[in-house]
Amino acid sequence: MTHLAVALDGAGWHPAAWRLPSARPSDLFTAAYWADLVREAERGKLDFVTIEDGLGPRSPEGRTDRVEGRLDAVLIAARVAPLTSRIGLVPTATVTHTEPFHISKAIATLDYVSTGRAGWRVQVSARPEEAAHFGRRTLPALDEVGVKELFDEAADYVEVVRRLWDSWEDDAEIRDAATGRFIDRDKLHYIDFDGKYFSVKGPSITPRPPQGQPLVTALAHADIPYAFAAGSADLVHVTPADADDAKRIVAKVDSLPHVFADLVVFLEDTEQAARDAKARLDELDGSAYTSDSVIFTGTPAQLADLLLSWEQAGITGFRLRPGRLPADLEAITRGLVPELQARGAFRRDYEATTLRGLLGLPRPANRYRQEAPVA
Amino acid sequence: MPKQIHLAAHFPGVNNTTVWSDPEAGSHIEFASFVKLAQTAERAKFDFFFLAEGLRLREQGGKIYDLDVVGRPDTFTVLAALAAVTTHLGLAGTINSTFNEPYEVARQFASLDHLSAGRAAWNVVTSWDAFTGENFRRGGFLAEKDRYSRATQFLDTAKELFASWPADAVAASPSEGVFLRDASAGTFAHRDDHFDIAGRFNVPRSPQGRPVILQAGDSDAGREFAAATADAIFSRHGTLAEGQAFYADVKGRLAKYGRERDELLVLPAATFVLGDTEDEAQERARIVRRQQVSGATAIKFLEQLWNRDLSAYDPDGPLPEIDPDVSDDHIARGRASVRMHRDPIAVANEWRARAEAEKLSIRELIIEVTGRQSFIGTPSSVAASVNELVQADASDGFILVPHVTPGGLDEFADRVVPLLQERGVFRTEYAGPTLRDHLGLKAPR
């Protein structure tokens, strides 16, 4: 069985997608827009949606013919959580300029408000203009040493977030009337993290979230981020060029239970129509859209063929980036999904109530749990 | 038309006002509890829902304090989720200006304001303690004397960011091929003692322009900060005389900032206990106070003043004869109240004298000297008291703190609010969609 996610961003991944009659460019900053998209993804029984984010403008060069501005992704996810019931919600949040204590409780709380459907896509920021919005640090030069430093810091950050999620044991709240104690403080733990970049004491102010450890994902394109993902994430998003490339990448991250391939998709009833659709957008934008991932133009059935061939290379799921929203999302849920279901390759209904459950991941034991001594 | 009352619902806090041992008490962390209280407040046409925050678990005697409710959600995340299950209710969050950065907080509040269609409010608080700082990258970096200057500059910076997109910057016009009318939308540069930042803010102007600003500090610096910058002040002065003095004081500070008296609302925190008769209400209030102050809690309160381990004392016995330890190293950490007792020995002497005169045990004394309920009575007498305080300019309304989660507001909503509505002093329908509309505040300048 394959797993499917969609990556939601603005009016779609093509910079001119907002100009189509089917787009909703005036609604991009409303709750209704995001709720409609995520509900559509849930109708398609997708595993999860990711929501892109960043701490700066989309186009620093200041173009006025492209979408600019975005809402905080964690808050979008929280806003749609009560309106959905099964789909996973994976907002992007940057580690480089933020506090692990805040992100830990934000994702834990997303897990509470979604009753176990939260994840977090970890993002490292190497953009100098984002650093200038915080005024607290100068980023290292982006040579191998500097990149390594940013990802080492990210690894420490994820470690802190994970320890904070475990800093309350599941049964710490006791409400013991006899002693007047609300909690058993022996089941709350200082995390005492002291690393090269920061130290954090703990425990969290938020109890352990429903999934224990919400899903952590990361997008990776090179060896340093592959190593980071393999050590820190539960799921890595990768961008293979073809099935052979997928095989090569999977070998680098094979300790992870899930390797999802990213593809930008433009889906139409014929291959020619899909190509024409992208070409028309390229013309509107004034340049041919390129991407770090494969750009697929074709029919849902052709896409199904491609995905299943990549699965043979060890890819466990796909994060599809709709070129146009909501059009390509609907083509995924109403075209690709039935196609995969007909081939017995995708679920017909949700089989679990948590995101970890949908991905076949167990609820992890708490790292601080002391087993009772055996008598 | 008589002066209109404003009401807010405070989610029960992590302190001993909240009675977790009540048979009706539910979860303090499950989202369903937040939904229940928020929907009750909205059904009763309250102005807003309020969440407090503390960024480190409280400790006493070097151990995590375990007698009160412990644990709370992330403020922004739970408020954004509540926006999905309410339509008019304001959503107010307490966010610290010391352990956050303006760019991030401004985009979170602007996002919340978009996602709630204009219902966000920010209670700006400051702290400085190294104890809380241990949970953050920068540690305890701020001196106590600098906390209001950082808060002021933080808020000024955030306001610049909120205003950095012209209201009509987003054209989103496919026919013209123009998404942004103004290529420089969001551009900012801010430099002061605490911040040196520049670039482009990435959230378009939100429905309210900026969130409603609340402020809760009571010191002279805190009052001045509120008069200069806040839309509402969350005070602790709920009685007639104290309330009037505070009200006159902060409203009197507005003129020097070129502000009108109605541009800053005074909203004291208030608790309540209702009964069918006055006697029944008093009896219920007495029971609630005993639930709030167990023997163990009474000893812990006493330790906060004495600054000593008093665990050997009997809560049903007399007060300690030994004097408080007045050294700096304080036994209780992570509490707003810790520095309340400026002269511990004088307070201890006062408490001992009172306990002796009234024949009070430690527990009975603590019940008397801490947190008596603000309003105790029948629905009709409570409605009358609430209204009297507002009409007498002791406040513009109240932030109500129920003592039971999540149903603690039900009785007030069902029995007191209709009486206020009958008197014509509280709305029967929301007049507009935004929190600014509910509070009668003008668009930000």
Q: How helix-rich are the residues of chain B, as a percent range?
A: 25-40%
Number of domains of chain A: 1
The CATH topology name of chain A reads TIM Barrel
Unreliable sequence segments of chain A? none
What's the mean pLDDT score of chain A?
97
> Which geometry of chain B do the CA atoms define?
globular
Structural class of chain A: alpha/beta
Question: Biggest β-sheet of chain A: count, sense, barrel?
Answer: 8 strands, parallel, barrel
What would CATH call the homologous superfamily of chain A? Luciferase-like domain
Q: What is the succession of H and E elements of chain A?
A: EHEHEHEHHEEEEEHEHEHEHEHH
**Biggest interface, and residues per chain?**
A-B, 82 and 75 residues
N-C termini distance of chain A: 44 Å
Overall number of strands of chain A: 13
CATH level-1 class of chain A = Alpha Beta
CATH class of the largest domain in chain B: Alpha Beta
Q: Would you write up a description of this structure?
A:
Chain B: InterPro entries: Diverse_substr_monoxygenases (IPR051260), Luciferase-like_dom (IPR011251), Luciferase-like_sf (IPR036661), NTA_MOA (IPR016215). Chain B: It holds the Pfam family Bac_luciferase. The complex is a heterodimer of chains A (375) and B (445). Chain A has one domain: Luciferase-like domain (TIM Barrel), CATH 3.20.20. Chain A is 35% helix and 17% strand. Chain A is built from eleven helices and 13 strands. In chain A, helix 5 runs parallel beside helix 6. The longest helix of chain A has 23 residues, at 144-166. Chain B has two domains: 6-276 and 374-439, Alpha-Beta Barrel (TIM Barrel); 294-369, no CATH class. Helix content of chain B is 36%, strand content 16%. The radius of gyration of chain B is 23 Å and the shape is globular. Chain B starts with 5 loop residues before the first strand and ends in a 6-residue tail after the last helix. The chains are: A alpha/beta (375), B alpha/beta (445).
